[in-house]
Amino acid sequence: MTSAYTIRPEQPEDHPAVRRVQALAFGHAERVPGLVEALRAAPAALAPISLVATHGGEVVGHVMLSACRLDAEPRLVDVLSLSPLGVHPGHQRRGLGTRLLAAALAAAETGGAPLVFLEGSPAYYGARGFERADRCGFRSPSLRIPPPAFQVARLTAYEPWMTGTFVYSDAFWAHDCVGLRDPERFARIVASHPG
Ligand SMILES: CC(C)(COP(=O)(O)OP(=O)(O)OC[C@H]1O[C@@H](n2cnc3c(N)ncnc32)[C@H](O)[C@@H]1OP(=O)(O)O)[C@@H](O)C(=O)NCCC(=O)NCCS
């Protein structure tokens, strides 16, 4: 039951469990956990928002929001990347990802961010507050992101002049966490979301 889960800010003692959950969710021992650690190491002014979901006191889900930029014409705009979002495989399809996503968007809203970007399934995120970013005036940071997967949530602080290129922080590049390196997967995603 979803109600058996608690969502709260990550504490330092959660770090090993977060590493395990993200490694299991993404099926990579190092890449995504490495990204999480690099994002945590940001200077205090750019500290990420990191939330965990617990079940019986155990961390079973995790989501992170971190500082990135939008290269808009008048000036650079501080925006957020929502990544990674991971739920322990044994707890998937119980609404937990949806709850973590809603909690992350609420935190972004509270913090006054105008825009939250991510890469992910348009079917999943499109039903949860996101829309195709390329159709809202945003340019993707990489040709390796399938256009339908480049997603944005426009929050209350968003203003129509905020268009331009989404720029990831260096941690995403350093950990090779931008876009897809599998052309067949890229083509499948594009083909399954025509128009
Ligand atoms: C994506 C993820 C966070 C969703 O968490 P969850 O707790 O299982 O999600 P919810 O229970 O809120 O929603 C489940 C629904 O989302 C769908 N869904 C889950 N992952 C999906 C995906 N990658 N693409 C499309 N739909 C997906 C399920 O089919 C399910 O649909 P249904 O309710 O119609 O059966 C989780 O599956 C996960 O950790 N996956 C591995 C890591 C990952 O891909 N993260 C996202 C990267 S952008």
Can you describe what's shown?
The structure is a single chain. The chain is α+β, with helices and mostly antiparallel strands and 195 residues long. It has a single domain, classed as 3-Layer(aba) Sandwich (Aminopeptidase). It has 6 helices and 9 strands, in the order E-H-H-E-E-E-H-E-H-E-E-E-E-H-H. Strands 1, 2, 3, 4, 5, 6, 7, 8 and 9 form a 9-stranded mixed beta sheet that branches. A hairpin with a 2-residue loop joins strand 2 and strand 3 (58-72). Helix 1 packs antiparallel against helix 2. The structure holds coenzyme A. Coenzyme A is lined by residues 25-26, 85-87, 92-98, 119-121, 123-124.
CATH topological fold name = Aminopeptidase
- Mean pLDDT over the residues: 96
How many domain regions?
A: 1
- Unreliable stretches (pLDDT < 50, length at least 5) are none
Q: In CATH, what is the class? A: Alpha Beta
Give the CATH superfamily. Answer: Gcn5-related N-acetyltransferase (GNAT)
Helix content: 25-40%
Cofactors and ligands: coenzyme A
**CATH architecture classification name:** 3-Layer(aba) Sandwich
Largest sheet: 9 strands, mixed
SSE topology string: EHHEEEHEHEEEEHH
Q: Strand-residue fraction?
A: 25-35%
What is the overall shape?
Answer: globular
